[in-house]
Design brief:
By secondary structure, the protein is α/β, with parallel strands linked by helices. Helices cover 38% and strands 16% of the residues. It has 9 helices and 11 strands. The strands form 3 sheets. Strands 3, 4, 5, 6, 8, 9 and 10 form a 7-stranded parallel sheet that branches. Strand 5 (91-94), helix 4 (107-125) and strand 6 (131-132) form a beta-alpha-beta unit. The chain binds nickel (II) ion. One of its GO terms (cellular component) is membrane.
Amino acid sequence: MSRHISSLLAIAAVCVTLTPTPALAQAPKKEVDCSQVKCVALTFDDGPGKYAGKLLDTLKKYDVKATFFLEGQYVKSRPSYVKRMVAEGHELGNHSYTHPDFRTVEKWDIRAEIKKTQDAVKKAAGVEPKLLRPPYGMVDLQVSDVAVEFGMPIILWTGGNEDWSSKNATAIKKKSMEVAKPGSIVLMHDWVKQTVDSMPAIVKSLQKKGYHLVTVSEVLKGQDVKLEPGDVYPVPAGWENK
Ligand code: NI
């Protein structure tokens, strides 16, 4: 089930908005300003995987927000996890329906893959993803054109923990720590058991180093990156956003 064939590649001043909360009201919303503090976006691809529930428990326990690039076929089979992701404040992205390399399929097929996944997420959780991550991070002009049709920027990653390759908890933690830098977008997978098992240790280590674990949109906002539909971030070598 190896998915990703290539890796493309502060100091705390947290604003806490406390509103008077009657019993049973939502917990106070904590706002993180990523232009002022160190932020990292953890991203989980190809899910919801079968360990997504355990992962969500960990994220909740450590007050971490993540971004899930969902694969439509699994949204359809595990809709309750998608609902939970939205309810617990995570960001969602579209990662196709069946994970083809978009460079090798026709434009209408890219369109269908994206649309089916948008529809599945809408059905599961009542919202539509606003970000696109093509399978394997493979982008060309045709993919960008279709992203424009859907009004979505294309989000790749600055580093990955290579969990799909090593399937080793020690290596996964080491690599996760290595690639986490201020403003990083880190690629992981919630179908890799060792990633989900290691997540409490990874989160604790990152938080100890002063990182705030936030959504992709929050990381972009902190760096004042404004993406138009069809733009790619981070910009791959040889690519120019229009
Ligand atoms: Ni993938």
